[in-house]
Write a structure and sequence with these properties.
Blueprint (H helix, E strand, L loop, with lengths): L4 H14 L4 H20 L5 H5 L17
Length: 69
């Protein structure tokens, strides 16, 4: 099922007008946000992109030596 970009954009706008998080949800979001920042400062979060490239070898930096017999 395909929807036009205009329809999806309009739907998003309507949902933003309708949805209002509860005070409890907003408080939880604040707590989770501060916890995330604390974990980042302590280095306790895994950076997926950094880990993905951890053992990536850049072939442009590899030296090739020719062995003479």
């Amino acid at each position: 099922m395909k929807y036009s970009l205009v329809f999806i954009f309009s739907l998003c706008l309507v949902l933003q007008l309708i949805y209002k998080p509860s005070a409890e949800r907003q408080e939880l979001q604040k707590k989770m946000s501060s916890l995330l920042e604390k974990q980042k400062r302590k280095g306790g979060l895994i950076d997926v992109e950094q880990e993905r490239n951890k053992f990536l070898i850049d072939i442009t930096s590899v030296c090739i030596y020719k062995v003479h017999n």
